[in-house]
From TrEMBL:
InterPro entries: EIF1AD, NA-bd_OB-fold, RNA-binding_domain_S1_IF1, TIF_eIF-1A. Residues 23-83 form the S1-like domain. It comes from the Eukaryota. It comes from Trichonephila inaurata madagascariensis. This is Probable RNA-binding protein EIF1AD. Residues 136-153 have a biased composition (Acidic residues). The gene is eif1ad. The keyword RNA-binding applies.
Amino acid sequence: MFCRKRHVVNKVLNTYTLPTDEQKIVKLVRSCGNNLHEVVTPEGEKFLVTMPTKFRNYLWVGRGSFVVVDPIVEGGKVKGEIIQLLLKEQIQHLMDEGVWPDSKGFSVPSLEKPKTNSDSNKLFVNTNSPYVDYPSSEEESSDEESEDEDNSS
């Protein structure tokens, strides 16, 4: 079992093939369960794709990942099968070859140059909980002082 996992992972990490004419590069939008994933094309078309059995127990794909999909002709709801998971190096290779789709939603933030050098961009942001901006204690104390001055006048 371990040998098969090593073979599958090695194939995913070291495969730099270009997609054929019928294959598409798509972005994963969400996981629907039962090894089904909703994807979006550069044109904005959304459809379901399936994860093949050889990848199911060995690879994890997350929201925002890029994959190469082979279309299923007879598919009703499920219109494709994941052929390859694209990692940063493979995406860079596709960009160098001129095969990467030119779409705003398909820009890869990790490959783009950072706009600022601040350390706050490197901090982890938890997107699972809402952001609440609490006033700092300095602002509260200055508000109280101004109220005291207004009351004494």
